[in-house]
Amino acid sequence: MTKKILFFLLLINIIQGQNLLIQNGSFEGPTAPNVSPPNWIGCMPGQTPDTQPGSWGVDLVPSEGNSYIGLVHNVPTNWTEGVSQELTQPMNQFIEYNCSIDIAGHLADESNAPVELIIWGGFNDCPQSELLWSSGDVPDFVWTTYSVEFTPNENYTHIMLQVNALTETSTYILVDNFTCENICPEPISEAGENQNITCDDFINLSANPPINSDEGGEMIGEWSIISGSGNFSSFNDPNTLVSNLSIGENIFEWTLINDCGSSSDIVIINFNQEYNFEIPNQVYCLSSFELQSSVEGNWIVDDELNMIIENPNTPNTIASPSSYGTYLFSFESCGNIVFSQEVNVVGSYPTITGDAQSSCLEPISLNVNILGDPGYWDYEGPGEAIFDDIFSLNPVINVNNYGEYTFTYYGCGLSNSINVNFNPQNPIINPQQTIFCSYETILEANSNDPTGWTLLEGPYNSTVQFSNPESETTNIQVSEYGLYQFMFEGCGGYETIDVLFESLPPTIISAEHEDCLLETSLYAFTENDEIGGPWEQINGPSEAIITSPFESSTSIFVSEYGIYEFIYPACDTFSSIEIGFSCSPVFPNVFTPNGDGNNDYFEIQNLTTGNYSESLLTIYNRWGQIIYLEKDYGLSDDVNWWNGKTTFNMKPYSGISPDRDIEANQLKKVNESVYYYVFDVYNIAHDQPEKYTGYITIIK
């Protein structure tokens, strides 16, 4: 009966000593309006408190952590916000709780009227069963820590914080760092480490001793059996001997009790006389392996020099070989060898697969398949090889030179190799047409690993400038026209291209001959529509007028007939054209050589030295006799028109009319009559001889 009363009193003390745990009392969570922090729920239907700072102009620094909660009371609409949570352990009736909370008033919405925080207790969300505490008006803009003390009249399961305006003006309140502490310290029990035993059915338990205090009073401790069996040398001694253990698992509990409460902890003692061992029969590649035993004891190996046991005196440990071969492992327990087994440490031949070819120094990937722990890679080749991981089973490899490489994997005492050819690849150059009238062009090539452009050959004393010689696309500018050869290198190969830069004379279009006109039009065309010029006259019997010398088309005006030559420069060269301006001679059919100064001579119109040459005038009478003969008639420097007198000159006849000779050698005036004329002349504009005949009447 006394023992039951003592247990009841202890139970009351345990209840009195329980803590009030507030979850997320610092209101940590994502800051946003209308968002409640985790572990808290909003209590105004259709409204949610704010996790601050950052909304509604609230920027006060938190008193604890990174955030706090804001609650608003809108008096006209009776909109009073609150937050609540279900306690992890109910409050205890008539127990005094001591808590603290940080509160501040803050200007938000429209005013900063007096405001207080009230705390409720109850049995559901957002309870209002009992008003546990109120703060009264709180200071504005600063955190103030309040001591919260209350004694509930019921074992409430829920708690709520709510804002309350103290006047008829709406207001806002900020809350942070809500914590509750228990004045009376509860004991903490520690039963000791779990253990496995094999040989003996007894063991010494070791728990933490009871400690008396002013707040908690006297503390007592006691062992009890949860499962299994055993005899305690003392139930109240933390360091007691327990004997007559059951085979298998034995669970013992150590309990500490004081006026503030109680605490219990268990310890598990495995008493095992069944031997189970896990050890491999074969190990590859000098890999470490586990030795596992179900009972206590120590491991023994027949070759301690080449096989290292990490901790031979523990049932579960690691063995590491340093040499291939067969090893004998034994396990000693309770003074006897209870287990022996051979372990064969063998090598493993690696199998390698992967790319056997690579173009343009592209990285390759190799894969190795091997039993046991991985080894490492090595190589031989004409250049340097870089592994992303030399110990990897599937490395990526880059090389810096072309040729054949041998990659070797060493592992498990054996090795294997693979040959990989890194082949060059000639680049591709886009073809080029002849470049007319320009000293520059763009060269384009395609290569996965471009090296760049170089000049192989060009005209004597020429130079070339590359805008970006290391790029696949580059602009080039040469100094001379001619044939150039360029080379592009990439991927270990190269390609060449010939590029011809040429000047191209412009094409001039015009009439070759203008008949009885003293004007014409010239048109020049260039390969790339370049505007050249200016037009220039280089030959002609008179100076021509060029209306638009700097345009590709122009009009030409001349003052007399003849052959004119013009040039038009473009594309670093020029073209020329000859144009003949002429008009057929006009012969009179009558003239009066009477000395009156009017129509006294046989004058032929339109004869110009620029247009005609080598003329010969022959005059016949009606009997076919030559009465007048004159070479270069009308074209000589001293022009003497025929005055109607016969002229006989002993001189060689002109080659223009070899069928006639001079017979007479006397000079006399002719009679009035009709005569026949033959005019032979060479037309320079038409590039041909011409003959004109007709009758002339002489009247005196």
Characterization of this structure:
- This protein is an all-beta fold and 700 residues long.
- It folds into seven domains: 164 residues, Jelly Rolls (Sandwich); 77 residues, Immunoglobulin-like (Sandwich); 70 residues, Immunoglobulins (Immunoglobulin-like, Sandwich); 73 residues, Immunoglobulins (Immunoglobulin-like); 75 residues, Immunoglobulins (Immunoglobulin-like, Sandwich), CATH 2.60.40.10; 76 residues, Sandwich (Immunoglobulin-like); 109 residues, no CATH class.
- 2% of the residues lie in helices and 46% in strands.
- It is built from one helix and 55 strands.
- Strands 2, 3, 4, 6, 9 and 11 form a six-stranded antiparallel β-sheet that branches.
- A hairpin with a 4-residue loop joins strand 54 and strand 55.
- The radius of gyration is 62 Å and the shape is elongated.
- The N terminus is likely disordered.
Let me know the CATH homologous superfamily of the largest domain: Galactose-binding domain-like
What is the number of strand segments? 55
Oligomer: single chain
The coarse silhouette is: elongated
Strand content: over 45%
Estimate percent helicity. under 10%
Task: Count every helix, treating DSSP H or I runs of 4 or more residues as helices.
Answer: 1
Biggest sheet character: 6 strands, antiparallel
Low-confidence stretches at least 5 residues in length (pLDDT < 50)? 1-18, 649-656, 660-666
Whole-Å distance between the termini?
190 Å
CATH topology assignment of the largest domain:
Jelly Rolls
Radius of gyration: 62 Å
Q: How many domains would you count in the coordinates?
A: 7
What top-tier CATH class of the largest domain fits best? Mainly Beta
CATH architecture assignment name of the largest domain:
Sandwich
What would the average pLDDT be, to the nearest integer? 86
Judged by helices, strands and strand pairing, the structural class is: mainly beta
